[in-house]
Amino acid sequence: MKYDVVVVGAGLAGSTAARILAERAKKVVVVEKHRHSAGHCHDYRDENGITVHTYGPHIFHTNNKRVWDFVNKFSEFHYYQHRVLSYAGGKLIPFPINRDTLAEVFGIQLATYEVEDFLEKEVNKSKFNTPSRNFRDVVVSQVGERLYELFFKNYTMKQWERDPEELAPEVASRIPVRTNRDDRYFADRYQGIPKYGYTKLVESILDHPNISILLGTDYFEIKDLFKPDLTVYTGQLDRFFDYKYGELEYRSLKLELKTIDKEYYQPVAVVNYPNDYDWTRITEYKYFLNEKSDKTTVCFEYPLAKGEPYYIVMTQENMEKRDKYMKEVEKLEKSGEYLFVGRLAEYKYYNMDQVIEASMRKLQNYSDNI
Ligand SMILES: Cc1cc2nc3c(=O)[nH]c(=O)nc-3n(C[C@H](O)[C@H](O)[C@H](O)COP(=O)(O)OP(=O)(O)OC[C@H]3O[C@@H](n4cnc5c(N)ncnc54)[C@H](O)[C@@H]3O)c2cc1C
Prior knowledge:
By secondary structure, the protein is α/β, with parallel strands linked by helices. The chain folds into 2 domains: about 5-80 and about 190-250 and about 310-370, Rossmann fold; about 85-170, no CATH class. About 35% of the residues lie in helices and about 20% in strands. The chain is built from 11 helices and 17 strands. The strands form 4 sheets. A 7-stranded mixed sheet has the order 8-7-13-14-15-12-16. Strands 10-2-1-11-17 form a 5-stranded parallel sheet. The chain has a 3-stranded antiparallel sheet with strand order 5-9-6. It is globular and about 70 Å long. The chain binds flavin-adenine dinucleotide. Flavin-adenine dinucleotide binds near residues 55, 56, 234, 343 and 352.
């Protein structure tokens, strides 16, 4: 059969693109190397009846109404507001930093209007470079040395196996600080978890008569079989070009699942361990969909230097390689025969909503230009 479009990858980038094109009457085939769809946000129900996120905890949050409306067409969303505690100094402390965090760490009760002044004094007491030269400078210039040491320094060392002073400033984004007692991890207008899981959400996005799916198939082994008008590529950027400018580095994770024979293991879905133990965080999955069971499934997360590609590594060397590959991408996209979108194909850290938005935008530009 002749397909108009080949989509490489059945993650959110690929499935969004496939759906938009299918609705424009294009015949689309989606090629996915894993035996399941949903890519990085894949999930499944385990033997305890608890929905486990295969590649680590995923919370959907966005301020983009168009993206929110899009995903809500394909799944109901369970109301969920994410809360995280950080185990520091032998206590479980609310994170990101809010008034209660400051009360726990400094033993002071501040009014909302006093928080900014308090942090400014903390910053003024601290030493850092302006403008920021590294990860440490970015964080210390926002919250001061004491909070940096307690919550960020060792967590970052564990996660990246590098001293934060050796990491590019871009690795640290704006540190969310709440001057009130809002202890939600995300402040976005729309938040939740797909009621029947992310895999069902993606399957439903792909459920269209114009879409065929080939699971367990590596695109590079079958690409010559198709002569499509358009290929939407969401796989690894360096792989597409046969690594001609060298390999792009990724960090990975070891995720260790455990069933615990009690109803709850910890008070919230995620507890960070910045300073103690080898794991970075523990996730208790039943919180996400408020699933009931006498047992509970928890996931210990350990950073790994190599393995399944999870996080891009923003060193100068990697970003220079990326630039070279992206110049090739530009040329191919200009030809009208290819689009590259998603966290692997653009070598870019994206949240789920950003991937959907990027996919929508790429296809909009594509149709504007043909
Ligand atoms: C630990 C972790 C936690 C996260 N938590 C959140 C969160 O809470 N909220 C949030 O919004 N985002 C979160 N994210 C980000 C989120 O996972 C991604 O934004 C999103 O899943 C990326 O979608 P994608 O389609 O670009 O890539 P992917 O999901 O990786 O999809 C790409 C697909 O292409 C396939 N593929 C690759 N090469 C080939 C090939 N040669 N042939 C065929 N198929 C191929 C892959 O198998 C994969 O299925 C998290 C990420 C990680 C790592």
